[in-house]
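quick one before i forget lol
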Amino acid sequence: MKIRLLGKTPDELKKIAVSEGLPAFAGGQIARWMYVSRVRTIDEMTNISKAGRQALSEKYEVGVTPYSDVQTSSDGTRKYLFKVACTRKNGLALTDDCKVPEDSLEQGAVEAVMIPDDDRFTLCVSSQSGCRMGCKFCMTGRQGFHGHLSVADILSQFLSVDEAAGLTNAVFMGMGEPLDNYDNVMRAIEVLTAEWGFGWSPKRITLSTIGVMPALKKYLDESRCHLAVSLHDPFPDERLSLMPAEKAFDIRDIITLVREYDFSGQRRVSFEYTMFSGFNDTVRHADALIRLLRGMECRVNLIRFHKIPDFPYDCPPDAVIRRFQERLNSNGILTTVRASRGEDILAACGMLAGKFRE
């Protein structure tokens, strides 16, 4: 099992180059080939000597994983399926440098969703196979946890989709809780935003979380990317009935932490609020949400719930959603209703399950 180079920094690549008898500057060349030229094989790195490429290829590979399947929605949204390797024992993380025997691996799958919108092409990225958070309204959370994605698995989603060259934005809102796989997600973001990497502005990236702490504080301290908090109910007891992680990460503590940071400039914070008919769509909920967020520079995104099996609630009528939105807006909480995309191919919010088509 070869070690994947994708996701490594120029300094790490220099050490690898030297260890294989290449000059140190070859590390920078490898980085440019992977992140700027976006080659898939070491043999394509033509300014490295043939002998050097052969030496590297004995132990290493670029490590871009192609997609295994793609589905296209009637609205143009595209859902890509990627095969990933997970360790069988306890769903342990599989890193790119691991020495796990191949016969101890099992195949998993994750999905990434490309959402077109005029001249914007946003990739909704997965960070885990399955999820440990167990949100009851989410297909990913209901399948359990199978393993963290490696940095190479995360970056492969950016490099392998057909729209790779034209992507304008990324949201870490796919399968998994990004802050539960903190180190690998932050390394992927480093590659995306570094001058030696993809060169993206942090303003092009949003990370969504239920509020895993202390990783949330680390993210706010170490990143300039946007933040989206999955809120869904302003009352802790009701939120707990939907989201078991509320027991460990109280929404009131999350809001208190977020209030410590400045979102009046280029970095933004938003709150995701999936609406369930007769459960969290009342005036009482709207007023509690106003009290919880009053005075913050933020946005609330109302999300239409997409029906999944064995969950008791439906999406409220549009008139109820509009009234909820208007009440928040009239009280100074900027609120929008997110357009549903890709529902017909199970690519909308909460519907990703990493399933192969028969």
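fyi The chain has two domains: 3-61, 69-345.
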